Amino acid sequence: MDQVLVRFEDATLSAIDRITEAWQSERADVIRRAVKDAIFQYEMDRMWEAYRLQPDSMDDLHSWELHVGSE
Questions:
Q1: Residue-wise DSSP of 3-58
Q2: DSSP letter assigned to residue 70
Q3: What pTM was estimated for this model as a whole?
Q4: Burial of 16 (0-12, 13-18, 19+ CB in 10 A)
Q5: What is the CA radius of gyration of the chain?
Q6: pLDDT digit string (tens) for 25-68?
Q7: Is there a contact between 65 and 55 (Cβ–Cβ < 8 Å)?
Q8: Which of 8, 24, 64, 71 could form a disulfide with 13 if both were Cys (CB 3.0 to 4.6 A apart)?
């Protein structure tokens, strides 16, 4: 696994430490999870946009809009 050096503002690092304590985890685990969540959200946004531009049907588009709007 490659290593990456990331610098955080004090407030962000404090928030990470609070989450780390609550989850009884390591900083690196919290940061990895946050990055994975961000990647997942980015990919879902891309998929939604592609589907919005070319839905299988209008009923499917309406279902997606209801689902995405509820998050």
A1: -------HHHHHHHHHHHHHHT--HHHHHHHHHHHHHHHHHHHHHHHHHHHS-S-H
A2: T
A3: 0.69
A4: middle
A5: 18
A6: 999 999 999 999 999 999 998 988 887 777 776 666 666 566 55
A7: no
A8: 8
